[in-house]
Design goal:
169 residues, four-stranded antiparallel beta sheet, 2 domains, mainly beta
Length: 169
């Protein structure tokens, strides 16, 4: 059973289309359990709330890990970590979640920000899509964008640096 993100997304779509509240799949030692939230929101907007662990019998010394997308090594741009050390006014905006980063609200739109843009705490820098939910990433400070560290459509990890902002005085 191929447990990549697209596969999980197709299962979530299947659950939504057929109004399923729970889905269990098992193939050999691989298992997946999806459960929709029973909150007060719109039934079509309920999110999958649990994914069961996948066990790896060939590696008994390893603990059971939650199923996630395999980590893809992402090379940081040259000097990405050096900039804040040189200028203490430069702050790093990091990803608050795992997902896909988008620089604009739609594929045909201009990016939210470019290098040199002045931002305030409410300025939207980009969007991270996680489980078909679009999450706006705000600057949370006033300043100027000095570096954009991720490309449009790139997969990002939790706590991954996204932007360098020269904080305003």
């Amino acid at each position: 059973m191929d447990l990549e993100l697209d596969f999980v997304r197709s299962l979530v779509k299947l659950m939504s289309e057929h109004n399923l509240q729970e889905l269990n799949l098992e193939e050999g030692e691989q298992k997946i359990h999806l459960l929709r939230n029973q909150g007060n929101g719109d039934a079509g907007m309920n999110a999958v709330s649990a994914v069961m662990p996948m066990t790896m019998p060939t590696m008994p010394a390893m603990p059971t890990m939650p199923m996630t997308m395999p980590a893809v090594p992402v090379a940081a741009p040259a000097g990405a970590d050096a900039v804040p050390a040189i200028d203490p006014a430069i702050q790093v905006v990091k990803s608050p979640m795992v997902g896909t980063f988008y620089r604009s609200p739609t594929p045909d739109s201009d990016p939210f920000v470019d290098i040199g843009a002045n931002v305030n705490p409410e300025s939207t820098l980009g969007i991270i899509e996680a489980m078909k939910v679009m999450n706006e990433i705000n600057a949370e400070m006033s300043g100027e964008i000095v570096e954009i560290l991720v490309a449009n459509g790139e997969a990002v990890e939790y706590d991954q640096p996204l932007f360098h902002i020269r904080k305003a005085d």
